[in-house]
Specification:
The complex is a heterodimer of chains A (118) and B (110). Chain A has 118 residues and is mostly beta strands. Chain A contains no helices and 13 strands. In chain A, strands 2, 4, 5, 6, 9, 12 and 13 form a 7-stranded mixed sheet that branches. Chain A is globular. By secondary structure, chain B is mostly beta strands. Chain B is built from no helices and 11 strands. In chain B, strands 2, 4, 5, 9, 10 and 11 form a 6-stranded mixed sheet that branches. Chain B has a 5-stranded antiparallel sheet with strand order 1-3-8-7-6, with no helix packed on it. Chain B starts with a strand and ends with a strand. The chains are: A mainly beta (118), B mainly beta (110). Chains A and B meet through strand 4, strand 5 and strand 11 of A and strand 4, strand 5, strand 9 and strand 10 of B.
Amino acid sequence: NAGVTQTPKFRVLKTGQSMTLLCAQDMNHEYMYWYRQDPGMGLRLIHYSVGEGTTAKGEVPDGYNVSRLKKQNFLLGLESAAPSQTSVYFCASSYLRSSGGSNTGELFFGEGSRLTVL
Amino acid sequence: GENVEQHPSTLSVQEGDSAVIKCTYSDSASNYFPWYKQELGKGPQLIIDIRSNVGEKKDQRIAVTLNKTAKHFSLHITETQPEDSAVYFCAANRRNMLTFGGGTRLMVKP
């Protein structure tokens, strides 16, 4: 059982280049998320999806796009990379556990993708 | 939106001592508060969580307390061990969005 797999694990880009990060989960989870992690700032939510074919903006969506064409995959795209997007990116998935209008399902994280934009 | 503040940013304790990490949140509608542990080079993993209708929850050496009135929650680790060394994140959930604190690097000295 692989859980959540992110590819690639490392990538170096030049300013203005584009790329896509792929997240795949094999737990049949409804919810998927993309976070970025920067020193001292914790994890900030970029975009998330509550099911196949749906996406929504998180706290820091600017400069990123996402797609969820298949339930098991969640793609994060950078159309024109900027140095400010240098970060470690984490994908997560969760089952739906509804409580008081919130999803309280545990998040299962991948091991991260380190992106450097020069 | 929600804002979660976490203190301290670093914490060093002797093996066997207790460690306490504190968080505050801003949105009174948040109703779920998990804690995640991140080891070097890995993604965060859930260690304990608490819902807004509960004041305290314990799991072996780990406990979490919640004060809804003060919008404050804390993680307590007793009898710390070297393997507790990691970065710990608190979080608050409102609807489908989980907002994380800035993290606490805990170092347990043998």
